[in-house]
Amino acid sequence: MTFDVRRYRGFFGLTMLCLFILYVPLLVVMVYSFNDSRSITNWEGVSLRWYVDVFTGPESEKFKQAAWNSLTIALSAAIVSTTIATAAAIGMVRGGAFRGKSATFALISLPIMVPEIVTAVATLIFFSTIAFPLGTLSILVAHIVFCIPFAYLPISARLQGIEASYEEAAQDLYAGRWATFRHVLFPIMGPGIMSGFLLAFIISLDDFIITNFVKGAGVETLPTAIFGSVKQGIQPNIMALSTLLLLFSIALVTLSYFIGKRGEALQPDRGD
Amino acid sequence: MTAAISLRDVRKTFGDFTALKAVSFDIADNEFFTLLGPSGCGKTTLLRLIAGFEGTTGGTIHLYGQEIEGLPPDRRPVNTVFQNYALFPHMTVQENIAFGLQMLKWPRADIAARVAEMVAMVRLGDFVHRKPAQMSGGQQQRVALARAMAPRPKVLLLDEPLSALDLKLRQEMRSELKRLQRETGITFIFVTHDQEEALSMSDRIAVMSAGEVQQIGRPSEIYEHPANRFVADFIGETNLIDATVEAVEGQIVTCRLPDGETVHALANRAASKGQSGTLSIRPERLTITRDPPPGESLKGVLGASTYLGTDTHYEVRLGPNLSLTARMQNAEDAALRLDEGDPVHVSIVAGAARFLVT
């Protein structure tokens, strides 16, 4: 007898419950972002006033600055951490067997397992011990560090699926190490590197705890700015801003999905 | 004339495993040379040492007189056709073939001319803008050949390139490879575990087993005069019978078989009376007749037969400890009409038996 999930008793109810808990709050936020009311609970008709408010209202300057900080930090952190993660993946996957390989892998992926609050406190203590000034730069450094494992995992997974004979073929055809990487390994790894980059970007863009600890006074990213506003009571403009962020994330995930698809299409087929 | 490849005491170990034990031989210029052996015999390791993907544990490799040990693969004027082709999936056929030339910094016009020439040589004109994934296995194979031959390597290394193709295509590619080798005059080193491939294409074959070369010679030498029991058994089919030497007359020995019969055979090296060894007789060199033939023959009873179209395999029981396989061509309609249990005579074609000293 085969296992058919559609006929499994209780499957439908459980699925609906999970979907409800996961998505109804998001749906409420999205719907109420179009509410033409100052109240966040009373529905008074459809309007785009809170979207206008995000860009022109009293808090708009704060949000714009925070969004700019978030984007530049996320972009820089993703670029640097992806570069480091790519180098690490090549070393780990292609570097042959060396003593302490498992330990190295554990060290690379540990930041995913360590509770974020512990990392946040430790990073803050580290920065103050070496008297590193808190601000945009301290956020960036912290983000680069915790983004590396997130970028590393998809990149090394992709590299493990690539046969070593491509690199051997390139070297055999007179490509040196760098030319082999640039013309052969990098293009074939491309989809994995792109996934790693997008994951690092989203993780950085989304981070609150560590950012909040190491940001210093006066520097805000979008998550910390939103948290700051919500502390004075939830305004409908926060719903509009959250909806915009959600759409941005969905766009990125969709992009990464299609890049992954393209990568699959490039996988060689043995033919017949 | 300097040898294309000259190996001297080449050894390779991986940890505790010895892949190659002190291999020494020369491969001549313009030769189609085959490394033949079962998997794990060290043939692919030897190819990878020549290509430079692995370093030797000991010994020297010279390419046209130049020591190449220590040079990385990109600085050795040899190219490889990989078993899985390893075509770059993100490049078109044209880009794949041009890759080596670009890396060698050929002028653009020369690259275009050479790529066109290679495409014509392997007859892939309609496919130049396709990606490897859009081509069949046989077409990918041709691209891999064109890509490896484009930079005019001094030696072309082929690592079981036909093993992924189906039978018909494999046979086509055999003559194609032979043609390419003749036309270009490049030295080919071909690795395979398929003896038929080796026999049909090679100028010379090195039969390898357990990290050692068992015999080097022309295909007919290897088949007709195997150096030892392994070679006799691995190349083609044969009857291997334990035997002892009764008498020696030059290279011809009289051997005694387990049930007491005697047979004359050509010894692979000097043998002396009383020495034990193996008698090897190819099935197609045995003739079965109902009536005793003139000259030497063995009496037996016909066992099971297997009909194979062009010929039939018969098993003949000669005694309690010995039976032989004979292969008779079905050249005539009536053939022999032999039935199981019939008493028959088996004769050995003159000069076809080999005695292999243990």
UniProtKB/TrEMBL annotation, chain A:
| CDD domains xrefs | TM_PBP2
| Membrane topology of this protein | Multi-pass membrane protein
Sorted alphabetically, the Gene Ontology cellular component annotations on this record are: plasma membrane
Keywords, in A-Z order: Cell inner membrane, Cell membrane, Membrane, Transmembrane, Transmembrane helix, Transport
- Please name the Gene3D superfamilies in this protein's record: MetI-like
**Which subcellular locations apply to this protein?**
Cell inner membrane; Cell membrane
Entries under InterPro entries matching the protein: Bact_Polyamine_Transport, MetI-like, MetI-like_sf
Domain ABC transmembrane type-1, chain residue ranges per copy:
67-256
Q: What Pfam families does UniProt report for this protein, alphabetically?
A: BPD_transp_1
Membrane-crossing residue ranges in chain numbering: 12-34, 71-93, 105-126, 132-153, 184-205, 238-260
What protein family does this chain belong to?
Answer: Belongs to the binding-protein-dependent transport system permease family. CysTW subfamily.
Q: What is this protein called?
A: Spermidine/putrescine transport system permease protein PotC
UniProtKB/TrEMBL annotation, chain B:
- Enumerate the spans annotated as ABC transporter domain: 5-235
The EC number(s) this enzyme carries: 7.6.2.11
The UniProt entry, under InterPro entries, shows: AAA+_ATPase (IPR003593), ABC_SmlMolc_Importer (IPR050093), ABC_transporter-like_ATP-bd (IPR003439), ABC_transporter-like_CS (IPR017871), Mo/tungstate-bd_C_term_dom (IPR008995), P-loop_NTPase (IPR027417), PotA-like (IPR005893), PotA_ATP-bd (IPR017879)
User: Sorted alphabetically, which keywords does the UniProt record give?
Assistant: ATP-binding, Cell membrane, Membrane, Nucleotide-binding, Translocase, Transport
Role this protein plays: Part of the ABC transporter complex PotABCD involved in spermidine/putrescine import. Responsible for energy coupling to the transport system.
The UniProt entry, under PROSITE patterns, shows:
ABC_TRANSPORTER_1, ABC_TRANSPORTER_2
Q: What does the record note on quaternary structure?
A: The complex is composed of two ATP-binding proteins (PotA), two transmembrane proteins (PotB and PotC) and a solute-binding protein (PotD).
Name the Gene3D superfamilies on file. Answer: 2.40.50.100, P-loop containing nucleotide triphosphate hydrolases
Could you tell me which SMART domains the record lists for this protein?
A: AAA (SM00382)
Q: Which GO terms describe its molecular function?
A: ABC-type putrescine transporter activity; ATP binding; ATP hydrolysis activity
Q: Which domain of life is it from?
A: Bacteria
Keyword Phosphoprotein (UniProt): no
Swiss-Prot/TrEMBL catalytic activity:
ATP + H2O + polyamine-[polyamine-binding protein]Side 1 = ADP + phosphate + polyamineSide 2 + [polyamine-binding protein]Side 1
User: Which one Pfam family would you cite for this protein?
Assistant: ABC_tran
Question: Can you supply one Gene Ontology CC term for this chain's record?
Answer: ATP-binding cassette (ABC) transporter complex
PANTHER family for the chain: SPERMIDINE/PUTRESCINE IMPORT ATP-BINDING PROTEIN POTA, SPERMIDINE_PUTRESCINE IMPORT ATP-BINDING PROTEIN POTA
Q: Which named protein is this?
A: Spermidine/putrescine import ATP-binding protein PotA
Protein family (similarity comment): Belongs to the ABC transporter superfamily. Spermidine/putrescine importer (TC 3.A.1.11.1) family.
